[in-house]
Design brief:
With about 160 residues, this protein is an alpha+beta fold. It has two helices and eight strands. The chain has a single domain, classed as Nucleoside Triphosphate Pyrophosphohydrolase (Alpha-Beta Complex). The longest helix is centred in the middle third of the chain and has 13 residues.
Length: about 160
């Protein structure tokens, strides 16, 4: 079985009753809203990652203010010759405030649009589950920083 671990850092930026989201473009072309953020580069600190990713995907300078929690997801998939792939994602979620910059879309990246969405409109958006995870962490602030959606049986 081939295993893979991806560690990423994301920002929950809420101001004036709206959340900042980036629209992720899947390899097969489907577009869904997500939290701005992405994978750590080797040797990079997670705080540096979230600052870099927010700027790349939205044009804004961000300052992480609170570690909200860590979400863990796991997926398996069939591979050639009956093998199984096993992927785990660790998603470090920070609350962050915008300190500068101007809203813009990322060019030549994994997202194609960034926008502020009123919090009450989020349930109607075509979004990745990470948005709901981030909002629950932001609202509930669980003492252990564990995602309320975490499923111990799913890693």
């Amino acid at each position: 079985m081939r295993t893979e671990l991806r560690v990423a850092a994301y920002a929950v930026c809420v101001r004036d009753g709206a959340i900042l989201l980036a629209r992720w473009v899947a390899p097969h072309g489907v577009r869904q809203w997500t939290l701005p953020g992405g994978g750590l580069e080797h040797g990079e600190d997670p705080v540096e990652t979230v600052v870099r990713e927010v700027e790349e995907e939205t044009g804004y300078a961000a300052e992480p203010t609170t570690l909200l929690g860590i979400d863990s997801i796991r997926r398996t998939w069939p591979r050639r010759l009956g093998a199984v792939g096993d992927w785990q994602g660790l998603r470090i979620v920070y609350e962050a405030r915008i300190t500068g910059g101007e809203l813009r879309a990322e060019s030549n990246g994994s997202t194609d649009l960034a926008a502020w969405h009123p919090l009450d409109t989020v349930p109607g958006l075509d979004r990745l589950p990470l948005v709901d995870v981030g909002l629950r962490l932001w609202r509930d602030r669980p003492p252990l920083g564990r995602s309320p959606f975490a499923d111990p049986a799913n890693g």
